[in-house]
Amino acid sequence: MICFIILLVIVDKYGDNNCFINVKMKLSISIKWGVKMTAKIVTFGISKGGCSKSVSSGVTSYLLSKEERVLAIDMDGQGNLTSFLTNEYDICNVFEEKTILEAIQDKDVRKYIIKISENLDLVPSNDFLATLPRMMYRQGIKFDALQVALEPVMEDYDWIIIDTPPALSEHTVMPLSTYSKAGSFAVVMFDGSMFAYYAIPKFLEIIEASKERYNPSLKTAGILFSLIDSRAKENEVMEESIEEEYPGLRFQTIIKRKAATRRLAISGFEENPELTNALEYYIPFVEELKKRAKQEQPQG
Amino acid sequence: MPSKNSLKDKIKKPNATQTFFNSYEEKLEETEKKQNDDIVEEFKDKNVVIDENETYDNDTNVVNDVVVNNEDEDDDYLRMLASGNKVKKVKKKKVFTSFYMDPDLAVEVDNIASRGEKGDKSKLINKAIRNLLEQYGVIERK
Ligand SMILES: Nc1ncnc2c1ncn2[C@@H]1O[C@H](COP(=O)(O)OP(=O)(O)OP(=O)(O)O)[C@@H](O)[C@H]1O
Ligand SMILES: [Mg+2]
């Protein structure tokens, strides 16, 4: 074990020129897990707007960071995850040229990581992310670009959590195409509506295509029911329909619509008296996600 | 009555996901062709004859001698994958489509494909259907 620690220090000292704190932090986590970890990638998506992708990816990042190191990445130009985690709404000015767009262009994300809390970091976005497809075209950037940019930090985190826009676009396909040897996963968001119901097979097809062409080890972690009204009569029918159509795919946890959850965007996570209430349904979901991500370790 | 061809176009019309991914495949083909042309040009200067059917590894620009697009080699390659080995291979352009599979087949196919690299799942499915259609006499044996 001592040998192992010394080796780690050496590797860290020469592997990157980061500060000593980083070495210490990695050490404590490495000792805890016995090995140096690689981040698992989880992309939240659905090509239907307003299904709680941003809130769910944000809350999941927060909960995972209680015990493990998390990097959240905002791949949506709306910057909702960015605002959710930083409480900053003037994203165009505050994060001008400090976003995931520049990180992809620079092929290195490190300069663009901002600290949210002890174990939670974020690469923000703003409206300029709309220019990503054009940039890819002009500079011959391919769908492995996010993977390239993340390469230097893959071992600094246990989880990389990515929020995507509600569209079939480069912003969605690029994270799905990002490989990690610890596993890449997609969480399909579903708000129980007809519109979202018909968006599910389309999103599953995007997952399949990304898997087939760019990231063979990508897995669908599951379909997450969110924003569900406790009183809606059609809930049960929707649950059964999803179970019949996609057996075993849905998460057992259902995230119900809650005012306290919605208010997280105003009150944040620090000193929030209703935090426990706001997170109620997300705690069992994150446990399920962890379990599925562990079971579904890719082979080879 | 619309013409036979316009009806055909309508039937064959790829959906949005297929069109999105195919558009990137086409772009990649263009760049590959350009790179190949560049290499041909380079060799022309040196008075060397090269076979344009050879495949180039897009990332390294190196001619890869195990990679010629040949049915028998596909077979050997898939056989190795199926038996649990890891092999390296470069793929050719395909048309993206989707269909429903029997769950037991889907599991086996995914297992085999996860040992290989991108495109191997398609390769396996193509191989299987090609064999069947040859047997039915729909297409000619290569
Ligand atoms: N569990 C919940 N309870 C109550 N409100 C919620 C819950 N989850 C999300 N919301 C609210 O629903 C709205 C949509 O959520 P969110 O912005 O996360 O969806 P989205 O899928 O990211 O949307 P878009 O497709 O525009 O990116 C927001 O106003 C958010 O605050
Ligand atoms: Mg959003």
The count of DSSP E runs of length 2 or more, i.e. the number of strands of chain B, is: 0
- Level of helix content of chain B? 55-70%
Strand content of chain A: 15-25%
Question: Taking all residues together, what is the mean pLDDT of chain A?
Answer: 89
Runs of chain A with pLDDT <50, length 5+?
1-34
Q: Which fold name corresponds to the CATH topology of chain A?
A: Rossmann fold
Strand pairing plus helix content of chain B: what structural class? mainly alpha
**Can you give the mean pLDDT of chain B?**
69
* N-to-C CA distance of chain B: 38 Å
Q: Give the terminus-to-terminus CA distance of chain A.
A: 26 Å
Helicity of chain A, as a percent range: 40-55%
In one word, what is the shape of chain B?
globular
Task: Describe the 3D structure.
The complex is a heterodimer of chains A (300) and B (142). Chain A is α/β, with parallel strands linked by helices. Chain A has a single domain (38-295), classed as Rossmann fold, CATH 3.40.50. Chain A contains 15 helices and eight strands. Chain A has an eight-stranded mixed β-sheet, sandwiched between helices. In chain A, α1 runs antiparallel to α2 (20-33). Chain A is globular. With 142 residues, chain B is an all-alpha fold. Chain B contains five helices and no strands. In chain B, α3 crosses α5 and α4 crosses α5. The longest helix of chain B is centred in the N-terminal third of the chain and has 30 residues, at 16-45. Chain B is globular, with a radius of gyration of 18 Å. Chain B starts with a helix and ends in a 6-residue tail after the last helix. The model of chain B is unreliable at 39-69 (pLDDT under 50). Chain A binds chain B through residues 140, 143, 168, 173, 202, 205-206, 208-209, 212-217, 298-300, and chain B through 15-18, 20-21, 24-25, 31, 86, 96, 98, 111, 113-122. The structure holds adenosine-5'-triphosphate and magnesium ion. Magnesium ion (MG) is lined by residues 53-54, 76, 78, 80, 163 of chain A.
